[in-house]
Design brief:
Blueprint: H1 4-12, E1 16-18, H2 23-31, E2 40-44, E3 52-55, H3 58-66
Antiparallel strand pairs: 1-2, 2-3
Length: 73
C-alpha cells in the first residue's frame, strides 16, 4: 500500500516534508469546502523554516491550481 510519505518522497525526493498539516491550513481549506488532507504534505525546502503546502498526487495538483497553489485565502 502506498501512503503519503511514499508519494511525497517520489515527488519531492530528499526534501524535508511533514505529513501532518497545520490545523489552521486544514481548517481554512475545509471552510472553502475542500478536504485536502490526503493530497498534501507540508514541504520545507532548504533554508525555509515555515514551509508550504505541496500536492502529492493529481487530486492535489487540481486543488493547488484551483486554490492558488494550495494557499488558503
Amino acid at each position: 500500500m502506498v501512503n503519503k510519505s511514499d508519494l511525497a518522497r517520489a515527488r519531492y525526493g530528499a526534501q524535508t516534508f511533514d505529513c501532518a498539516l497545520p490545523q489552521s491550513w486544514v481548517d481554512s481549506m475545509a471552510a472553502r469546502g475542500i478536504d485536502a488532507r490526503a493530497h498534501f504534505v507540508w514541504l520545507y525546502p532548504a533554508g525555509d523554516i515555515w514551509g508550504y503546502p505541496a500536492p502529492i498526487d493529481s487530486a492535489g495538483d487540481a486543488i493547488a491550481t484551483q486554490t492558488e497553489n494550495g494557499e488558503s485565502e
